[in-house]
Amino acid sequence: MRYIIHFHSNHTGTDNMANGYRPEIIQRAFVDFIGSRLHPFWSLTTPKLRLIARYTLSDNLIALRFETNRAFKQQTSEMMGGWQGGQYLDLRVCIDGVYHQRSYSIVGLAHQPLWWLDDATERHTADQRHTVTIAIKPQGLVSDYLTKQMPLASVVDTSLPLGNFTLEQTSILRQQISENKQPSPLLFIAGGSGITPMLGLITQALSNGHQVTLLHYSRTVSSKLQHQWQQLSDIYPDFIYYLIHTEDPTTYLAVTRYLSAEGLLSLNLPLADTQIFACGSQALLAGLYKAAAEITLPIDEQLRDKIIVENFGNALANVDNDSNQIFDKTIPVEEHTVYLRSRQRQFVSDTTILTAAENADIRLAYGCRQGICQLCRCNKVSGVVKNVQTGKVSGDGYESIQTCINIAMTDVVLDV
């Protein structure tokens, strides 16, 4: 059966032009559809990447360089010159007919050559205006495929640069910029492959005039990364780095292989004025918060409030002021009811909201399950929740939360 649909309008084409409306003679979506059939890299609207090179940065860290398509270039050109240090991309990768989405840190800054490329010609072709590079630790289905199996010239869909693990994330730094004040000292703490978002963030911080200190805890030695830090140290006298190899006692801070209050104090930084960025395993982050709790600052100030974290791993850090333990099912958490207003369903929660919902056979949106990708974000109508990564307790009113990293502290109503 066929239907004929008649469209009627009392407005003339001249009226439309006067009102600012410009009809598309050929829809961009149609052009994209035809273009993708001719070549999968073409698109006017969808950002895409084409793999052009792989580089080994360390025993457990691989860098992948991608050519960017026109849509990516145009849309990122509006983002403060490209992207900020510390941001990441969500890649949509097809493996055996199934699409998987994963998040990976961007290496370096837009318009910045990759430091490990020594050949002048290759440095020119690696110009970040036309390429973007991510760093991957080969582990799991998607990461192994990207680093070991995906053929060169393969095309993947990508998000635009995402994430708030940036210099502009902190209100203190924003205020200093607006008031033209002396930039505050910055301390970057990374564990293992948690160094990846730091690679652009530190360069950006140094170029902005910050005094920068880096602590990198790792079980492996990377000559390429060491060369990068030494280069920056030669250029910027205010950059100091400590590479703590967990199997080499000669590199330890305060005679301990783990992060500690004594180690932080040994840096001789003005901690009351220092902003801390940290990325690594939950054990590292839990150790950082424990150390911060043991350091006394002036009245009404806590070092934990100066910490911004990016993280990975399956365990979640419970940074409760009293316990500073790793959050898991062995730690007693009071049960509360979570009510899904739109679905008119409810469940009891004594763990993260996402996990509690799944335990009750209720499906909620999620992605990385680590507080990074934002796919689980929803609106809380009422009730109090606590972020198990930062320890921050919410207000009782309406706000946006991530279900994968929040636990209910009271009965909670979600607009889901």
Helix content: 10-25%
Strand % is 25-35%
Shape: globular
How many DSSP H or I helices?
11
Low-confidence stretches are 1-19, 312-332
Oligomer: single chain
Biggest sheet strand order reads 1-2-5-4-3-6
Instruction: Let me know the number of strands.
Output: 20
Structural class of the secondary structure composition?
A: alpha+beta
How does the major sheet shape up? 6 strands, antiparallel, barrel
Rg of Cα set: 24 Å
Termini Cα gap:
39 Å
Question: Mean of the pLDDT scores?
Answer: 79
Describe this structure in words.
The chain has 416 residues and is an alpha+beta fold. The chain starts with 12 loop residues before the first helix and ends with a strand.
Structure at a glance:
With 416 residues, this protein is an alpha+beta fold. It is 23% helix and 26% strand.
Structural key phrases:
single chain, about 425 residues, alpha+beta, 6-stranded antiparallel barrel, 5-stranded parallel β-sheet, 11 helices, about 25% helix, globular
